Amino acid sequence: MADVVDQVTRSRMMSGIRGKNTKPELAVRSFLHRAGLRFRLHANLPGKPDLILTRYRTVVFVHGCFWHRHEGCRYATMPASNPLFWQAKFAANMKRDAKVRQQLESMGWNVLTIWSCQLDEVSLQGLVREIRSEG
Fold first, then answer.
1. pTM above threshold 0.85
2. Averaged over 33-51, what is the pLDDT?
3. Which of 79, 98, 99, 75 shows the shortest CA–CA distance to 87?
C-alpha cells in the first residue's frame, strides 16, 4: 500500500517525533512519582535511559512499539513503502537496544522496559512492583 501523504508531509511528520519527554514517558513518570518512586531523567549512561532509579539500581526505558519492534504488538507494523530501508532500520534499532541492555547489566543496573501499548494501570502497577522487588 502506498503512503497516504506526500513525501514532504511525511518528512515533516517524522521530524516531529521527539526522543525525550514523549507522552508515554510523561505518563510513566507521573505514575511512578505518584507511587512514591523518585528518579533522575536521561542520565549519562549507555542508551540514555528514560528513568534512572538509583536507590533501586534500576533504569527504565519507555519504548515505542513501532520503533523498537514490540514483538507481537499490533503497533509494530512494517511500512509498505521502502521495505529494505525499514528492515535495516528496525534491525539496527533492535541490535542497539540489546547492546545497551547488555552494557547496563554488566555495569550492575537492572534494566526494565515498558512499551507504549502497556500504559494501563495494571501494567504500570506491575512496573512499580518490579522496581521495588529489585531494591
1. no
2. 92
3. 79
Q: What is the DSSP letter of 70?
A: -
Domains of the chain with bracketed CATH: 7-134 (3.40.960.10)
Helix, strand, or coil here: 86?
helix
Angle between helix axes 121-134 and 23-34 (nearest 10 degrees) is 60
Neighbours of 98 (CB within 10 A): 10
Rounded to whole angstroms, the Cα distance separating 40 from 52 reads 5
CA–CA separation, 18 and 112 (whole Å): 21
Helix (H) or strand (E) holding 100: helix 83-106
Which residue blocks in 19-115 are alpha helix, DSSP H?
23-34, 65-68, 83-106
Would you say how long the chain is, in residues? 135
Q: What is the pLDDT of residue 14?
A: 66
Query: At 73, is the secondary structure helix, strand, or coil?
Result: coil
**What's the rounded mean pLDDT across residues 95-113?**
96
Q: How far are the Cα atoms of 25, 46, 76, 96 from residue 90, in angstroms, in the given order?
A: 21, 19, 10, 10
